[in-house]
Amino acid sequence: MLDIAQCPDCGNARTLFGQCPHCGSDSTPDLSSDTIEINLKQGSPLVEEALEQLTDYLRKCLALGIKAIVLIHGYGASGEGGHIKRAVHEALENNRFADRVEEFYFGENVAYGTHNYHTLLRRRPGLKRYLKRFKEGNAGMTVLLLGSSHRNA
Ligand SMILES: [Zn+2]
Asked: How many CB atoms lie within 10 A of CB 90?
């Protein structure tokens, strides 16, 4: 994850969630970007754990004002990476996260220069530095645009 958050109490770079590792502050971090990358594979969770983690991340990200997430879920015909990817795709397609995710784009479909690529950058310019890495798309990730018409934030 990129260092996009700063502790408002000690000024050090910190991760988005949990306490500041430098001073232990619980204050909401200051963000330098409205786009973040989340690696759902970290800690090799089981599929259901990964989905629960994602639910939690989405809630926290919305509260922090995050607008877009590059979600790394991995891929593969077998193994947990493939399972998590399938579960994430399925959950999105079944609107499991519809109250927090306004739109989603599978990594396969956002190759550099495509219509989707340009649409995404128009909607969320902060995605540029993430997407430009994927010349041919990336089946191991999904782009989530956060927000919904019926949230109170
Ligand atoms: Zn701190």
From this structure: 12
